[in-house]
Amino acid sequence: MSWVIRVPASTSNLGAGFDSIGLALNRYLELKVTPSQSSWEFVPQSECLKDTPTGKENLIYKIAQQTAIEFERKELPPCQVEVTSNIPLARGLGSSATATIAGIELANLLLELNLSQEEKLQFATSIEGHPDNVAPSLVGGCIIGHYDGEVDWLKVPVQDVTFLAVIPSFELKTKEARAALPTQFSYKESVHASSVANVSVAAICQHNWELLGKMMKKDCFHQPYRKKLVPHYDEVTTFLDDTVYGSFLSGAGPTIIAIVANDVVEKQLPIWKKQFPEFEWLPLQVENEGVTTMKLNASF
Question: What is the pLDDT of residues 245-267, one digit of tens each?
Fold first, then answer.
């Protein structure tokens, strides 16, 4: 028996929702898993994966093995895993979180762990340290979450709007982006920053994209510090300002995402591409389903 595991990409923070708000998007990491009589092998099927490890050094295997140990099953039967992805690596679109969810789901299938959604999310968040990317990749939609050793979360429906990713050619590692952040805020700064985040959450819940866009500009938690690592940030966001609801740095960056009315994208996209041809302009929609698995009628 073979399986296909499909995990959606994600964007996180949405401005001031630092480490606590994430949104699943319709780009995917896909695994075709077939039991093997020999050893573990990961076979990259996409250009962006050509340099990823093909054996047990692969991140997906490492997460699957961690899952096996965590839930008291230590031996993962060897498999050949064909890996396909159209998620750019190290661009702020949750590529590492998709690998985490894929690894957990892989162990869950192979060892018949029958993990609940809550168990998967709790373990994934303990690995990542926060739920903003793993939660939407697991359950889909927009997730607002909190983690202090235990995950508390809510799923908010989002539809009828486009998330336009402006993707540069260079990578930005999360470790580098986190190093740019301050180590502490004053009490007054914390109150101000959290009030922006609170209004942002209310705006998402009410689908008030204009208000959310306004709050994105007021974020104090990460964008003022990380945009220094993204030289084009101010130029692109200023250029888009009059035609989109708002723009934000996706995850740790360097991708910028603009929230745009669907009809505006169709009219403006050629103009935007012409103005900034050095970037990939990718209109994305919310993926509400999250991770999916499917059995294939195959023998080995």
Answer: 999 999 989 999 999 999 999 99
Q: Look at the alpha carbons of 189, 190, 191, 195 in this order and tell me if their dihedral is positive or negative.
A: positive
C-alpha 74/C-alpha 300 separation (Å) is 23
Q: Which CATH number fits domain 162-284: 3.30.70.890, 3.40.50.2300, 3.30.360.10, 3.50.30.10?
A: 3.30.70.890
Cβ–Cβ under 8 Å, residues 133 and 127: no
Residues of the chain short of pLDDT 70, as ranges, are: 297-300
- State the pTM of this model: 0.94
Q: What is the pLDDT of residue 299?
A: 45
C-alpha distance across the termini of the chain, in Å: 7
